[in-house]
Design brief:
Layout: H1 15-31, E1 37-40, H2 47-55, E2 60-62, E3 64-65, H3 70-79, E4 89-90, E5 103-109, H4 117-130, E6 131-141, E7 143-144, H5 152-164, E8 171-172, H6 173-182, E9 186-193, E10 197-203
Parallel strand pairs: 1-2, 1-5, 3-4, 5-6, 7-8
Antiparallel strand pairs: 6-10, 9-10
The protein binds S-adenosylmethionine.
Length: about 200
């Protein structure tokens, strides 16, 4: 187990991660029950990783993120070390350098609305080889349905993303299901999560 009180005060911190980690765990625990190695794309602060690794001791949780995020991410992993939490690896979905074995589980939270749409398409192209032939895929975040926001707060969030960068924005669930299907991942469940988020569970 880890102890938050011993963490350096300057480590990047997300209150949202603390709020959503338990509801997410309740979905990914059964989804990843048979997985041995889960690759997380866009680990961010690493708060999800340290919690999920401690709660899912049967598997190895492999963090990754764009190189610029790695020093702080790695600092958290060192402070909250666990034997199933190896050093985070550099992974920018736009690049193609990756020599790690394919993972039988892939997790990504709050990344698809940050990536520009061509990068989202690339995410699924890369996923074809990042993931094993038989694998579970869990994607957490806000999604639209039939082009509609599911809440006023999601609409506001989308507008704030687009102010930051017009290429960012909440994606249509149907478009994500189609990209996943093109590489053999079928939607198993679309879970409603707190704060108008969803957790999409796919298998292939
Ligand atoms: C909003 S943060 C989410 C972080 C964390 N998963 C969470 O839920 O708090 C978005 C993450 O997507 C990652 N990301 C954005 N573009 C990426 C890319 N091209 N390749 C890999 N990761 C990317 C960022 O580096 C960042 O860690």
């Amino acid at each position: 187990m880890y102890n938050n009180s011993q963490l350096p005060a300057d480590l990047p911190y997300s209150q949202a991660c603390e709020n959503n980690k338990k509801p997410i765990l309740s979905v990914i625990k059964p989804a990843f029950a048979r997985c041995k190695r889960v690759l997380e794309v866009g680990s961010g602060t690493g708060q999800h990783a340290v919690y999920f690794a401690s709660e899912l001791p049967h598997l190895l949780w492999q963090c990754s993120d764009q190189p610029a995020y790695l020093p702080d991410l790695q600092r958290r992993l060192q402070h909250q070390a666990a034997s199933n939490l190896p050093a985070a690896l550099p992974l920018d979905i736009r690049q193609s350098d990756w020599s790690e074995p394919a993972a039988d589980g892939v997790f990504s939270a709050n990344t698809l609305h940050i990536m520009a749409w061509p990068v989202v398409q690339r995410f699924f192209q890369r996923l074809d080889s990042l993931a094993a032939r038989q694998a579970e895929l869990c994607i957490y975040g806000p999604f639209n349905y039939q082009g509609e926001f599911t809440s006023q707060s999601n609409h506001q969030f989308h507008l704030s993303l687009q102010q930051r960068d017009p290429a960012m924005g909440i994606r249509d669930q149907e478009a994500i299901v189609e990209l996943a299907s093109a590489i053999g991942f079928q939607l198993q469940a679309d879970h409603s999560m707190p704060a108008n988020n969803r957790l999409l569970h796919f298998s292939r």
